[in-house]
Amino acid sequence: MADMDDTILETKGLTKEFRGFVAVNGVDLRIKRGEIHALIGPNGAGKTTCFNLLTKFLAPTSGTIKFNGIDITGEKPAQIARRGIIRSFQISAVFPHLTVLENVRIGLQRQTGLSYHFWQSEKRLAALNEPARALLDEVDLGGFADELTVNLPYGRKRALEIATTLAMEPELMLLDEPTQGMGHEDVDRVTRLIKRVSAGRTILMVEHNMNVVSSIADTITVLARGSVLAEGPYSEVSRHPAVMQAYMGTTEGELQGAHA
Ligand SMILES: Nc1ncnc2c1ncn2[C@@H]1O[C@H](COP(=O)(O)OP(=O)(O)O)[C@@H](O)[C@H]1O
Ligand SMILES: [Mg+2]
Protein backbone atom coordinates (compact mmCIF):
# COMPACT_ATOMS: atom_id res chain seq x y z
CA MET A 1 0.00 0.00 0.00
CA ALA A 2 1.26 3.43 -0.94
CA ASP A 3 0.16 4.64 2.44
CA MET A 4 2.57 2.33 4.22
CA ASP A 5 5.51 3.30 2.04
CA ASP A 6 4.75 6.83 2.92
CA THR A 7 5.11 6.20 6.64
CA ILE A 8 8.57 5.78 8.10
CA LEU A 9 7.63 5.64 11.76
CA GLU A 10 4.36 4.85 13.42
CA THR A 11 3.47 4.50 17.07
CA LYS A 12 0.20 3.12 18.37
CA GLY A 13 -0.95 3.77 21.90
CA LEU A 14 2.55 4.60 23.05
CA THR A 15 2.45 4.94 26.82
CA LYS A 16 5.04 5.48 29.54
CA GLU A 17 4.29 5.49 33.23
CA PHE A 18 6.75 6.47 35.93
CA ARG A 19 5.50 4.93 39.15
CA GLY A 20 1.89 5.59 38.29
CA PHE A 21 2.52 9.00 36.68
CA VAL A 22 1.61 8.85 33.01
CA ALA A 23 4.21 10.91 31.16
CA VAL A 24 3.24 9.68 27.68
CA ASN A 25 -0.34 8.64 27.26
CA GLY A 26 -1.56 6.62 24.30
CA VAL A 27 0.35 8.53 21.65
CA ASP A 28 -0.36 7.68 18.02
CA LEU A 29 2.35 9.25 15.92
CA ARG A 30 2.73 8.89 12.19
CA ILE A 31 5.82 10.32 10.58
CA LYS A 32 5.89 10.63 6.83
CA ARG A 33 9.03 9.77 4.96
CA GLY A 34 11.01 12.80 3.84
CA GLU A 35 9.26 15.24 6.12
CA ILE A 36 10.45 17.50 8.88
CA HIS A 37 8.09 16.66 11.71
CA ALA A 38 8.07 18.81 14.83
CA LEU A 39 6.98 17.73 18.27
CA ILE A 40 5.94 20.71 20.34
CA GLY A 41 4.21 21.30 23.65
CA PRO A 42 4.69 22.92 27.04
CA ASN A 43 7.43 21.82 29.42
CA GLY A 44 6.63 18.45 30.91
CA ALA A 45 4.37 17.49 28.00
CA GLY A 46 6.33 14.28 27.42
CA LYS A 47 8.39 15.24 24.37
CA THR A 48 11.77 14.03 25.62
CA THR A 49 10.17 10.91 27.06
CA CYS A 50 8.75 10.21 23.58
CA PHE A 51 12.25 10.51 22.12
CA ASN A 52 13.58 8.19 24.79
CA LEU A 53 10.89 5.66 23.91
CA LEU A 54 11.61 5.88 20.18
CA THR A 55 15.32 5.30 20.68
CA LYS A 56 14.65 2.68 23.35
CA PHE A 57 16.44 4.55 26.10
CA LEU A 58 13.19 3.82 27.88
CA ALA A 59 10.90 0.82 27.47
CA PRO A 60 7.26 1.72 26.89
CA THR A 61 4.70 0.62 29.47
CA SER A 62 2.46 -0.23 26.53
CA GLY A 63 2.00 0.50 22.86
CA THR A 64 3.94 -0.32 19.71
CA ILE A 65 6.54 1.33 17.52
CA LYS A 66 6.92 0.45 13.86
CA PHE A 67 9.80 1.59 11.68
CA ASN A 68 9.46 0.97 7.95
CA GLY A 69 6.60 -1.37 8.75
CA ILE A 70 8.68 -3.49 11.16
CA ASP A 71 7.70 -3.74 14.81
CA ILE A 72 10.75 -2.48 16.71
CA THR A 73 9.08 -2.17 20.10
CA GLY A 74 11.19 -4.91 21.62
CA GLU A 75 14.52 -3.91 20.13
CA LYS A 76 17.55 -2.52 21.93
CA PRO A 77 19.06 0.94 21.35
CA ALA A 78 21.95 -0.46 19.28
CA GLN A 79 19.56 -2.35 16.97
CA ILE A 80 17.44 0.76 16.53
CA ALA A 81 20.53 2.79 15.65
CA ARG A 82 21.59 0.16 13.14
CA ARG A 83 18.21 0.49 11.47
CA GLY A 84 18.99 4.16 10.93
CA ILE A 85 17.14 5.89 13.74
CA ILE A 86 19.80 8.24 15.06
CA ARG A 87 19.41 10.81 17.75
CA SER A 88 21.55 13.89 17.92
CA PHE A 89 22.82 14.27 21.41
CA GLN A 90 23.62 17.29 23.43
CA ILE A 91 27.03 18.88 23.19
CA SER A 92 28.49 16.42 25.69
CA ALA A 93 28.42 13.80 22.93
CA VAL A 94 31.31 15.40 21.08
CA PHE A 95 34.80 15.19 22.47
CA PRO A 96 35.85 18.75 23.36
CA HIS A 97 39.60 18.18 23.17
CA LEU A 98 39.59 16.55 19.77
CA THR A 99 39.47 18.58 16.62
CA VAL A 100 36.27 19.09 14.70
CA LEU A 101 37.50 16.74 11.97
CA GLU A 102 38.45 14.05 14.49
CA ASN A 103 34.99 14.16 16.01
CA VAL A 104 33.35 13.53 12.65
CA ARG A 105 35.83 10.74 11.92
CA ILE A 106 34.74 9.03 15.12
CA GLY A 107 31.16 9.19 13.91
CA LEU A 108 32.24 7.63 10.63
CA GLN A 109 34.23 4.91 12.39
CA ARG A 110 31.16 3.98 14.37
CA GLN A 111 29.11 3.89 11.22
CA THR A 112 31.56 1.70 9.36
CA GLY A 113 31.60 -0.66 12.33
CA LEU A 114 35.27 0.00 13.02
CA SER A 115 35.49 0.38 16.74
CA TYR A 116 36.65 3.86 17.51
CA HIS A 117 40.00 3.09 19.00
CA PHE A 118 42.14 6.15 19.15
CA TRP A 119 45.22 4.06 18.49
CA GLN A 120 44.05 2.97 15.08
CA SER A 121 46.65 3.42 12.41
CA GLU A 122 46.93 6.88 10.99
CA LYS A 123 46.57 5.37 7.52
CA ARG A 124 43.17 3.85 8.23
CA LEU A 125 42.05 7.04 9.86
CA ALA A 126 43.29 9.12 6.94
CA ALA A 127 40.92 7.22 4.67
CA LEU A 128 38.08 8.82 6.61
CA ASN A 129 39.36 12.36 6.17
CA GLU A 130 37.72 12.88 2.83
CA PRO A 131 34.19 11.80 3.83
CA ALA A 132 34.63 13.66 7.13
CA ARG A 133 35.50 16.87 5.29
CA ALA A 134 32.52 16.41 3.00
CA LEU A 135 30.24 16.18 6.04
CA LEU A 136 31.83 19.28 7.55
CA ASP A 137 31.21 21.15 4.32
CA GLU A 138 27.59 20.02 4.43
CA VAL A 139 27.14 21.81 7.77
CA ASP A 140 29.33 24.82 6.87
CA LEU A 141 32.14 23.78 9.20
CA GLY A 142 34.75 23.22 6.50
CA GLY A 143 36.81 26.15 7.77
CA PHE A 144 36.84 24.78 11.31
CA ALA A 145 38.13 21.28 10.56
CA ASP A 146 41.39 21.57 12.50
CA GLU A 147 40.00 23.67 15.33
CA LEU A 148 39.72 22.09 18.77
CA THR A 149 36.05 21.47 19.39
CA VAL A 150 36.17 23.20 22.78
CA ASN A 151 37.00 26.47 20.98
CA LEU A 152 33.94 26.44 18.72
CA PRO A 153 31.18 28.97 19.29
CA TYR A 154 28.00 27.40 20.69
CA GLY A 155 26.00 27.40 17.46
CA ARG A 156 28.88 25.75 15.60
CA LYS A 157 29.04 23.01 18.22
CA ARG A 158 25.43 22.20 17.52
CA ALA A 159 26.22 22.11 13.80
CA LEU A 160 29.06 19.69 14.57
CA GLU A 161 26.62 17.52 16.49
CA ILE A 162 24.47 17.39 13.39
CA ALA A 163 27.52 16.43 11.33
CA THR A 164 28.43 13.60 13.71
CA THR A 165 24.83 12.43 13.54
CA LEU A 166 24.90 12.53 9.72
CA ALA A 167 28.06 10.43 9.86
CA MET A 168 25.89 7.61 11.21
CA GLU A 169 23.80 7.77 8.02
CA PRO A 170 20.45 8.32 9.67
CA GLU A 171 17.29 7.47 7.81
CA LEU A 172 15.33 9.08 10.61
CA MET A 173 17.16 11.78 12.53
CA LEU A 174 15.89 12.87 15.94
CA LEU A 175 16.81 16.35 17.14
CA ASP A 176 15.91 17.40 20.68
CA GLU A 177 15.75 21.20 20.81
CA PRO A 178 18.48 21.87 18.24
CA THR A 179 18.29 25.67 18.61
CA GLN A 180 18.04 25.79 22.38
CA GLY A 181 20.09 28.54 23.98
CA MET A 182 21.10 30.14 20.68
CA GLY A 183 21.08 33.74 19.59
CA HIS A 184 19.21 34.85 16.47
CA GLU A 185 22.06 34.35 14.01
CA ASP A 186 22.81 30.84 15.17
CA VAL A 187 19.12 29.97 15.21
CA ASP A 188 18.79 31.11 11.62
CA ARG A 189 21.91 29.26 10.53
CA VAL A 190 20.95 26.00 12.25
CA THR A 191 17.39 26.27 10.91
CA ARG A 192 18.71 26.54 7.37
CA LEU A 193 21.10 23.72 8.10
CA ILE A 194 18.32 21.40 9.28
CA LYS A 195 16.29 22.24 6.20
CA ARG A 196 19.30 21.51 4.00
CA VAL A 197 20.25 18.19 5.60
CA SER A 198 16.61 17.06 5.55
CA ALA A 199 16.97 16.33 1.83
CA GLY A 200 16.66 12.57 1.39
CA ARG A 201 16.14 12.05 5.12
CA THR A 202 13.35 12.28 7.65
CA ILE A 203 13.65 14.51 10.68
CA LEU A 204 11.71 14.44 13.91
CA MET A 205 12.53 17.40 16.09
CA VAL A 206 11.46 18.77 19.43
CA GLU A 207 11.59 22.53 19.08
CA HIS A 208 10.31 25.39 21.20
CA ASN A 209 11.02 28.21 18.81
CA MET A 210 7.84 28.75 16.81
CA ASN A 211 9.69 30.72 14.14
CA VAL A 212 11.80 27.65 13.48
CA VAL A 213 8.82 25.30 13.56
CA SER A 214 6.67 27.47 11.30
CA SER A 215 9.44 27.97 8.78
CA ILE A 216 10.64 24.39 8.28
CA ALA A 217 8.24 21.82 9.79
CA ASP A 218 5.92 20.05 7.35
CA THR A 219 3.87 18.51 10.12
CA ILE A 220 3.52 19.43 13.76
CA THR A 221 2.31 17.25 16.59
CA VAL A 222 1.28 19.08 19.73
CA LEU A 223 1.65 17.17 22.97
CA ALA A 224 0.10 18.28 26.24
CA ARG A 225 0.23 16.27 29.45
CA GLY A 226 1.41 13.24 27.56
CA SER A 227 -1.37 13.21 24.95
CA VAL A 228 -1.62 14.39 21.36
CA LEU A 229 -3.67 17.55 21.26
CA ALA A 230 -3.45 18.31 17.57
CA GLU A 231 -1.53 17.37 14.47
CA GLY A 232 -1.13 19.01 11.11
CA PRO A 233 0.69 21.79 9.29
CA TYR A 234 1.52 24.96 11.20
CA SER A 235 -1.30 26.89 9.55
CA GLU A 236 -3.87 24.51 11.05
CA VAL A 237 -2.27 23.67 14.35
CA SER A 238 -1.56 27.30 15.22
CA ARG A 239 -5.26 28.13 14.96
CA HIS A 240 -6.44 25.15 16.95
CA PRO A 241 -8.28 26.52 20.03
CA ALA A 242 -7.19 23.67 22.34
CA VAL A 243 -3.60 24.20 21.27
CA MET A 244 -3.69 27.91 21.96
CA GLN A 245 -5.33 27.23 25.31
CA ALA A 246 -2.95 24.52 26.45
CA TYR A 247 0.25 25.64 24.83
CA MET A 248 0.06 29.38 25.09
CA GLY A 249 -2.56 29.86 27.79
CA THR A 250 -4.56 31.99 25.42
CA THR A 251 -7.50 31.49 23.12
CA GLU A 252 -6.86 34.60 21.10
CA GLY A 253 -4.69 35.24 18.12
CA GLU A 254 -2.19 33.04 16.46
CA LEU A 255 0.49 31.03 18.23
CA GLN A 256 3.22 33.44 19.12
CA GLY A 257 6.85 32.55 19.12
CA ALA A 258 7.66 30.86 22.41
CA HIS A 259 11.24 31.96 22.70
CA ALA A 260 12.93 30.27 25.60
N1 LIG B 1 12.65 9.18 34.70
C1 LIG B 1 11.56 9.83 35.11
N2 LIG B 1 10.96 9.52 36.29
C2 LIG B 1 9.85 10.16 36.71
N3 LIG B 1 9.22 11.12 36.02
C3 LIG B 1 9.76 11.47 34.84
C4 LIG B 1 10.95 10.86 34.32
N4 LIG B 1 11.25 11.43 33.12
C5 LIG B 1 10.29 12.35 32.90
N5 LIG B 1 9.41 12.39 33.92
C6 LIG B 1 8.23 13.25 34.00
O1 LIG B 1 7.46 13.05 32.83
C7 LIG B 1 6.91 14.29 32.38
C8 LIG B 1 7.35 14.53 30.96
O2 LIG B 1 8.73 14.85 30.94
P1 LIG B 1 9.53 15.16 29.59
O3 LIG B 1 9.28 14.05 28.65
O4 LIG B 1 10.91 15.46 29.97
O5 LIG B 1 8.77 16.47 29.09
P2 LIG B 1 9.22 17.54 27.97
O6 LIG B 1 10.42 17.04 27.27
O7 LIG B 1 8.02 17.66 27.09
O8 LIG B 1 9.47 18.82 28.71
C9 LIG B 1 7.37 15.35 33.35
O9 LIG B 1 6.35 15.58 34.29
C10 LIG B 1 8.58 14.72 34.00
O10 LIG B 1 8.76 15.20 35.30
MG1 LIG C 1 12.37 17.88 26.97
Brief account:
The chain is of the alpha/beta class and 260 residues long.
Note down, in words, how this protein is organized.
By secondary structure, this protein is of the alpha/beta class. Helix content is 36%, strand content 24%. It is built from eleven helices and ten strands. The strands form two sheets. The chain has a six-stranded mixed sheet with strand order 6-7-8-3-9-10, sandwiched between helices. Strand 7, helix 8 and strand 8 form a beta-alpha-beta unit. Helix 4 crosses helix 6, helix 4 runs parallel beside helix 7 and helix 7 runs parallel beside helix 8. The longest helix has 14 residues. The termini are far apart. 40% of the residues are buried. Magnesium ion binds next to helix 2.
Distance linking N and C termini: 42 Å
Shape descriptor:
globular
The level of helicity is: 25-40%
Mean pLDDT: 88
Order of helices and strands: HEEEHEEHEHHHHEHEHEEHH
**CA radius of gyration:** 19 Å
Bound molecules: adenosine-5'-diphosphate, magnesium ion
Find the structural class using helix and strand composition: alpha/beta
How many β-strand runs? 10
Strand neighbour order, sheet with most strands: 6-7-8-3-9-10
Strand content: 15-25%
> Residue ranges: pLDDT <50 for 5 or more in a row?
none
Main sheet record: 6 strands, mixed
How many helical elements? 11
